[in-house]
Amino acid sequence: MGDENDFRAVTRSRRRATITSAKGELVKRPNGASSADPNSLTWTKPKHKGQETHTRVLPEEKKKYSHNDNLSCHRLQESMLSSASSFRNYRGILNWCVVMLILSNARLFLENLLRYGVLVDPIQVVSLFLKNPYSWPAACLVIVSNVFILVALYTERRLVTGTFSEQIGLIIHIINLSVILCFPVVTVLMLPSVTPVGGAFALAVYTILFLKLYSYKDVNRWCRERMQAKARSLSRSLSCPSTPSISGEVYVSYPGNLFLKDLYYFVFAPTLCYELNFPRSKSVRMGFLLRRLFEMLLLTQLLVGLTQQWMVPIIQSSMKPLQEMDFSRMIERLLRLAVPNHFLWLIFFYWFFHSSMNFVAELLRFGDREFYRDWWNAETVTYFWQNWNIPVHKWCLRHFYKPLLRKGASKLVSQSAVFFASAFFHEYLVSVPLRMFRLWAFMGMMAQLPLAWFVGRFLRGNYGNAAVWLSLIIGQPIAVLMYVHDYYVIHHLEEAAEPAPL
Amino acid sequence: MGDENDFRAVTRSRRRATITSAKGELVKRPNGASSADPNSLTWTKPKHKGQETHTRVLPEEKKKYSHNDNLSCHRLQESMLSSASSFRNYRGILNWCVVMLILSNARLFLENLLRYGVLVDPIQVVSLFLKNPYSWPAACLVIVSNVFILVALYTERRLVTGTFSEQIGLIIHIINLSVILCFPVVTVLMLPSVTPVGGAFALAVYTILFLKLYSYKDVNRWCRERMQAKARSLSRSLSCPSTPSISGEVYVSYPGNLFLKDLYYFVFAPTLCYELNFPRSKSVRMGFLLRRLFEMLLLTQLLVGLTQQWMVPIIQSSMKPLQEMDFSRMIERLLRLAVPNHFLWLIFFYWFFHSSMNFVAELLRFGDREFYRDWWNAETVTYFWQNWNIPVHKWCLRHFYKPLLRKGASKLVSQSAVFFASAFFHEYLVSVPLRMFRLWAFMGMMAQLPLAWFVGRFLRGNYGNAAVWLSLIIGQPIAVLMYVHDYYVIHHLEEAAEPAPL
User: Fold this and answer.
1) pLDDT, tens digit, for every residue of A233-291?
2) Is residue A220 less than 8 Å (CB to CB) from chain B?
3) Of the N and C termini of chain B, which has fewer Cβ atoms inside 10 Å?
4) Report field, pTM of the whole predicted structure over 0.90
5) Nearest chain A Cα to B368, which residue?
6) One Pfam family from the UniProt entry (chains A, B) (predicted)?
7) What crossing angle do the helices spanning B146-161 and B137-144 adopt, rounded to 10°?
């Protein structure tokens, strides 16, 4: 191998010749590194900095051989995903999630269409409200409700004139309010012509009315107490007649508020808490009004369409597994139902709490548009329940929770009481229209208490938030399946018995 | 209606009595408002502030009647979701996306299990590599590759001693490199005992070797040019023998690098760009090494399992629609395939570019761990291709793109050339092992150019990022389906013909 020896000779000679120039070489090496991206980090920062300064010493070197810096194109650094790296930017992941969600749901939608064809049928919706188009029991119920409004107003007027003592007034109010709760129940259970949906609608109206009139009586009582207190403490009475307020509104004070117009404004206003002088917006913004109206119409169609096309087939196909208690298949159906059910709930939320309520508020120039807060960031179950439905939350706080505290009840007791009441009304609104009492909704609501404790105790930040979402996405369809299943068993057993269309 | 008159009288009298006290009442109203949350905004900020100061004037009022502030519990404010509101915190939505993704995929997984049962079978994997356990054609191919490494080293040694002129050296290198590309192709096409997977593996090894040796020859040439330049410019030669460098490593300089050990270190190092002195990490971190090893084993199992359980059934069931060109069903299958395919790709990415490469690097104390950058945040297709596979990107830049620019080619031409080369190798790695030339992969890569133009031109920020994700998630399964379909048509036509298991 003569060549081999030549090669060794060459290298050896170079060694001798240039032993001194090591340093000179050393400083030039990291040219490549100095042009690397700032994201990734090196284990030897100080040294690396030092080298960079060196490279600036001989720029003409670099220019002369444009590929010299190529000679070293690596440098000490960690992979971005390894814990030692300081890189933490995963913004793209959110977009990934969105794309994946859209795709997988597009797939579901297509699969659904291929399997069932188009099931959307707007006409069918009407039949949900009416059995016989010539009898409108639910509508009649709603109209009748005016009677109770008048009773409440009449009682208040008697109270302020002193014709009624506080006791009598209270009794009348209690009777009036309990009738409001019981009368529709009796009617719905008596009249078979009331459809579940129609019944639910009527009951919802009566429940809202109950809460509103309860608030009405409370606030008026507070005003009287205040008047008397002021009178006693010889300070000049704070009650005052109609005078122009800052916003150019007539400013009403007790008992100047005890008129039909005022009460009916409250009845139609999107709030459950009565107030003598609601904040009013300057004017009706036409564009805003029309946008909300458009949303209302569009989302109604969407809700109906998704229910018919997506919910119903899944529910029907999940009857059989439920009958047979085929567990794994039940779970599969439950998860399958969870997605459309959740989407429907989200759409409903926006439709009701944003579009509809803002529409009414704009129409009535009702100023306070806080119908919900940022429940989607809820990190505890409690936060969710305090922020997703502000009208009800406000009412509970003002007419139920705080009075209980004032009466000396403990925070926990009062909170549980609120949940209990809420559970009652959930059950009330579901069981009566379906004419079957299963307590699923009630238990669902009561289950929130241990859940709230668990999440608050063990989960923080994003985990808590995820847990809240999970309880929403999974919890609802369970209750839905329970009720639908029982409803089928009672009413369409033959349908449920025959093989479901899968 | 005597009562009615009484009532009017009462209100009238109060009016007269307290006409002056309107202002006093006015300032007390917004007590409720002042305690509202800062998030939501009011239309009348300045006034509101003013009122807050007022309320501070009479605190004992508040204490005296703890429910006085209840008298006004509303204030002017917009809904959070309406554009007029300043609220923009939707952090919870990310968690929502994650929960939804997990749930829907849990559902898919369960459905899949119910439909197909357990299909995972680790033994079957072996059969993908070997037809006959006594002949290992792919392994033999890999072993043979050492010959080309030796040829490259031999040529370089001859070049430094001047026994070969630059021209001869170049010719030998070109022949050597082209043989590296052609030899395995011929073998794979000749030997029927080479399975597609085995062939793909062997070809991958040879492709990597090709890129490495190409880089090796370039860098050594650059070193020689530099030596001569230095010699000419009478500056003292920068080449130097082995001397201790900062990191305590022996610092090698040309031609001190032309030894087997050095070359084989480069061959096994997780990089395609040769360098005389790679940055080395201080020591082998055992914990790190074992974690990466654990990841490698786990993810391999996961990849195999998901493929057998999730990919294969979908692909089989999508053969029939493809045969019949049933379009809507093809789309449905494509979307259905996109999800597992994408997950597999993500797992593969982590397995190869993070676990495996870091494992090898740690083992060899190879310092530069930048095998990928944050392609998941890519807002343009170009950015993705520049950052998802750094070793290849670095090689293209150093040995293909920059040299082209130096030769005076325009940026666009050079970029297209790079894409073209990349497209060639994609096709090379797919078509040869499958023994069918369909150009799907080639076209898939070339399609990136117009796509890159479109995204860069029309989409910004998150939309660009989403588009990149979409092209990844949708693009791959299309190519996969194409190849698998053609492969089935050729090899298992009878299988594809009979009704697929749906």
Assistant:
1) 754 444 444 444 455 567 888 888 999 999 999 999 999 999 988 999 889 999 999 99
2) no
3) N
4) no
5) A76
6) MBOAT
7) 10
